[in-house]
Automatic annotation (TrEMBL):
<dbReference type="GO" id="GO:0046373">
    <property type="term" value="P:L-arabinose metabolic process"/>
</dbReference>
<dbReference type="InterPro" id="IPR055235">
    <property type="entry name" value="ASD1_cat"/>
</dbReference>
<dbReference type="InterPro" id="IPR013780">
    <property type="entry name" value="Glyco_hydro_b"/>
</dbReference>
<feature type="signal peptide">
    <location>
        <begin position="1"/>
        <end position="19"/>
    </location>
</feature>
<dbReference type="Pfam" id="PF22848">
    <property type="entry name" value="ASD1_dom"/>
</dbReference>
<dbReference type="Pfam" id="PF06964">
    <property type="entry name" value="Alpha-L-AF_C"/>
</dbReference>
<dbReference type="InterPro" id="IPR010720">
    <property type="entry name" value="Alpha-L-AF_C"/>
</dbReference>
<keyword id="KW-0325">Glycoprotein</keyword>
<dbReference type="GO" id="GO:0046556">
    <property type="term" value="F:alpha-L-arabinofuranosidase activity"/>
</dbReference>
<protein>
    <recommendedName>
        <fullName>non-reducing end alpha-L-arabinofuranosidase</fullName>
        <ecNumber>3.2.1.55</ecNumber>
    </recommendedName>
</protein>
<keyword id="KW-0378">Hydrolase</keyword>
<feature type="domain" description="Alpha-L-arabinofuranosidase C-terminal">
    <location>
        <begin position="459"/>
        <end position="647"/>
    </location>
</feature>
<keyword id="KW-0732">Signal</keyword>
<dbReference type="InterPro" id="IPR051563">
    <property type="entry name" value="Glycosyl_Hydrolase_51"/>
</dbReference>
<comment type="similarity">
    <text>Belongs to the glycosyl hydrolase 51 family.</text>
</comment>
<dbReference type="InterPro" id="IPR017853">
    <property type="entry name" value="GH"/>
</dbReference>
Length: 656
């Protein structure tokens, strides 16, 4: 019996050796072909899928200022039946950006009355953590005291505090109380009980955890920012995306309404609120607690160049296609000029002074600006020309990013590509949401592009395994490995492609509208998808110079389902090879390295693979598809690596 098993194992091993393909690769480290942009791999943020409110912006209260179309959406009256007129939504005309507030009339002081806020699909609460409750209030008739409670899904209190208003009567004031949570809860709610007799007005009711990014009060969710910082992105593109355009111009993103004091920022409906009929989100709004100042600050925090995108006088052409007449475009152009002053201007300028008053007297050193998002047609070119002239005249060093529309081919793309190149725009922003097969078949897309014309920004890319989105399962290994192959073509053509970012960035598992997405979260946890792991390996192994990697004298770009690129990192004195095996069988890779001088005798081999092409990461198992690293031996200027089926590899070799 034992002999039969041994024979079977020997036969299986022999068959495996016979099935294994052997390929020889030549790495020409002595023949650099292009410089790699330091901004090559970045991130793109848009407030979709509860990406900002309910996501990276750490506010736990939904509809904190009662400005939703339904003023009490997210709130529920609790306790005994309230007499008519106990809760009133009122307006103050002098505050046009944030006019509504809630008046509490405690007429008798006898009833147990309260309000409950449901949060964003609940509130993620952590045991032992401090929570800071704050509110703007005005005492009309003093005498009302507030009791604050966090409750779990059973109604059990897991944190509480008391709030005794003070200050002058009929004067608005902000006050805060802090308390600690006694247990962890994924979907907690907040109760506010009103004790005593009197009348009090409330606005900007807020709850933040203490563990925000860099412990900033009213800041960002630290675990989500950390995932971005770990990628070491070269840039961050914001605030979108279709958010920039709006369904109509009235709901476009206007950066000036997102800066200054939080309580003065004007909330608007999120355009993804009703965009997808199969996943409606009527409670999806933009409070702009994450505004343009915070975007610039985030970019600075994670070492990324800021890349803001501004409306060009066009609403989303898939929705209303509303246009600003050319003779009324000055306001939009001035917004662009003023934004540069806000980012870079001296503190003596109007907008530089505002930046300084928000806590950042030093400039943000803005170097590039996008005009329009996924806009197309002659009407876009007409408006872009006006923006370009004004920007070039006033700020000639600011590079301009222009849209090539929604698709990477077709009549619209061809028209824009020709016109934008004739205009000599700095960057053409190409987008591709396509099947994994498209990415595999387009790895040579940029091999024949003009090396001296406008540079390419691959601003939104993502492999879509299916036509209909069904959440996290869309972020499978099939899509990620196809993207890894496509990115070899971007890296190989780094003299043409200078920036690239996956899209969209974030998605809440209970509040998404679009899939796939790079990072998925719930109220307590966040994880990177296989797609995240792919781009992170590119971004953290960027290099400084492209070098050829050939097989049989040809580029490794799809023949035999192999894809490869290589760079030198002169700062770290390393050769970095990236290679994808998109075969169902292993490939024995034999690498010959042409380099001046000697190589170290060992290096590192990091690889991503999965049990099957449908493999995904999840909240419960966030590392199912994650990098594994092992040492490798280098003999002189040769090394051998086994490329397992359906795998992506990063090999690093030290130069002496």
């Amino acid at each position: 019996m034992k002999r039969n098993v041994l024979v079977a194992l020997i036969v299986a091993f022999t068959l495996s050796l016979n099935a294994q393909v052997k390929k020889t690769f030549s790495i020409q480290a002595d023949k650099p072909t292009a410089k790699v942009s330091p901004n090559m791999w970045g991130v793109f943020f848009e407030d979709i899928n509860l990406g900002a409110d309910g996501g990276i912006y750490a506010e736990l209260i939904k509809n904190r200022s009662f400005e939703f179309a339904q003023p009490l959406m997210g709130w529920k009256k609790i306790g005994e039946t309230a007499p008519e007129g106990t809760f009133l939504v009122l307006n103050q005309k002098e505050k046009t950006n944030n006019p509504r507030f809630l008046r509490i009339n405690r007429l008798t002081g006898a009833e147990k009355l309260g309000l409950q806020n449901e949060g964003f699909r609940g509130m993620g609460i952590k045991q032992g953590l401090r929570y800071d409750f704050s509110v703007f209030y005005r005492q009309i008739k003093p005498g009302v005291k507030l009791h604050i409670e966090l409750v779990d899904t059973t109604g059990t209190i897991i944190g509480k505090g008391e709030f005794s208003p003070d200050g002058e009567q009929n004067t608005w004031k902000k006050q805060q109380v802090s308390f600690h949570a006694t247990q962890t809860e994924l979907k907690a709610k907040l109760n506010i009980w009103f004790e005593g007799k009197g009348i009090i007005d409330l606005d900007m009711i807020s709850l933040f955890p203490e563990d925000t990014w860099k412990k900033r009060p009213g800041g960002l969710r630290a675990d989500m920012v950390q995932l971005l910082a770990d990628m070491k992105p070269g840039f961050i593109r914001f605030p979108g995306g279709c958010i920039v355009e709006g369904r109509e111009l009235a709901t476009r993103f206007q950066w000036k309404k997102t800066v200054g004091p939080i309580e003065d920022r004007q909330l608007i409906i999120n355009r993804w609120n009703t965009e997808f009929k199969h996943r409606p989100a009527p409670d999806y709004y933009q409070t702009f607690g994450l505004g343009f100042f915070e975007y610039f600050q985030l970019a600075e925090d994670i070492g990324a160049e800021p890349l803001p995108i501004l409306n060009c006088g066009m609403a989303c052409q898939f929705n209303t296609a509303e246009l600003v007449p050319i003779d009324e475009l000055d306001e939009y152009v001035q917004d662009a000029l003023d934004l540069i002053e806000f980012a870079n201007g001296d503190v003596t300028t109007k907008w530089g002074k505002l930046r300084a008053s928000m806590g950042h007297p030093n400039p943000f050193n803005l170097k590039m600006l996008g005009v329009g998002n996924e806009n197309w047609g002659p009407q876009y070119i007409e408006r872009l020309e006006i923006f370009k002239k004004a920007l070039n005249d006033r700020y000639p060093n600011i590079k301009i990013v222009a849209s090539s529309g929604t698709d990477p081919d077709g009549e619209r793309f061809d028209f824009l590509n020709q016109r934008l190149r004739a205009m000599k725009v700095d960057f053409i922003d190409e987008h591709y949401y396509r099947s994994p097969e498209w990415f595999l078949s387009n790895t040579s897309r940029y091999d024949s592009y003009d090396r001296n014309g406008s540079k390419i920004f691959a601003g939104e890319y993502a492999g879509h395994p299916k036509q209909v989105e069904d959440g996290p399962s869309e972020n499978n290994w099939s899509a990620a490995i196809a993207e890894a192959a496509f990115l070899t073509g971007l890296e190989r053509n780094a003299d043409v492609v200078e920036m690239a970012s996956y899209a969209p960035l974030f998605a809440h598992v209970d509040g998404w509208q679009w899939a796939p997405d790079l990072i998925w979260v719930n109220n307590l946890h966040a994880y990177g998808t296989p797609n995240y792991q792919v781009q992170k390996l590119y971004a953290t192994n960027k290099g400084t110079d492209v070098i050829p990697i050939l097989s049989d004298g040809q580029l490794v770009s799809g023949r035999d389902s192999l894809y490869a690129s290589a760079v030198i990192d002169h700062n770290q004195k390393e050769i970095i090879v990236k290679i994808v095996n998109h075969n169902a069988q292993p490939v024995e890779g034999m690498f010959n390295i042409q380099v001046k001088g000697k190589l170290a005798s060992n290096g590192s081999h990091t690889f991503l693979t999965a049990t099957n092409l449908n493999a995904i990461n999840t909240i419960d198992q966030p590392d199912q598809v994650s990098p594994q690293t092992r040492p490798i031996a280098i003999e002189g200027k040769k090394l051998n690596i086994s490329l397992v089926p359906y795998s992506f590899h990063v090999v690093k070799i030290k130069m002496q």
